[in-house]
């Protein structure tokens, strides 16, 4: 059946174009439109296969009502939860979320952003590879709203939402010390990302301040699953009584290795993770983590986006640093 226009739909439903538009955009209750009228409009829309003309809407509003989300890996539970929260928080607006993954490849990051710009997204929310600062700054300076999250450029004015990574690692260390753990091994990533550097700096500062043994180890992101087993085995042989993992996916690999070698957590070796995973709350024992507040990260990303979209631009410094939360379970 041929698609009909909004004007034709309104005529068949015997309402104004404005009333039909409000109902079709889910705003009927907000504007106190009669329930029977709402049902009549929706029935006509379904009967005549009504589809909104997004091109016309874009011309009218000067916007496409889309936001591009760029993340390293949408399959990663942290980034998929961010995407979910953004979609939830955009549900009562006219905005739609477009998303894609860079796989930590800077050229793919640029290509993906270019694709979004060619689709004329109204804003970009990016967990950057931190290798495209000049490129992203040019986009921002051209007037397109940009918000970075999870990773940022410390010497840039680009708006960003991050957690206090240094403090998060300190919380995990202090927790382990409260459990009388002193030989704390650290397993992190060989990645030139500011968030990773802050986490590693926190551990190394603690190690120097306490003259603790050097149990700091890193693995390559591209091969972390294979390499993680080797460094965990080495640290276990060296007599660590706790393992602090820099990310949740490193912790998952480390626990798998410990279990295969007959080590019990927390009796033999305690385990904590920067970053939560749904499995950590159902494991026996439950894994203590530093939780990144994904709902608040998403909320503040959108806050900075909509500030930039308004006339007058940002109403704040553009920097939001959130406190990570220690979630104590059984380790």
Automatic annotation (TrEMBL):
It comes from Carboxylicivirga mesophila. This is LacI family DNA-binding transcriptional regulator. Keywords: DNA-binding, Transcription, Transcription regulation. It comes from the Bacteria. Gene3D superfamilies: 3.40.50.2300, lambda repressor-like DNA-binding domains. One of its GO terms (molecular function) is DNA binding. Residues 4-61 form the HTH lacI-type domain. The keyword Transmembrane does not apply. Pfam families: LacI (PF00356), Peripla_BP_3 (PF13377), Peripla_BP_4 (PF13407).
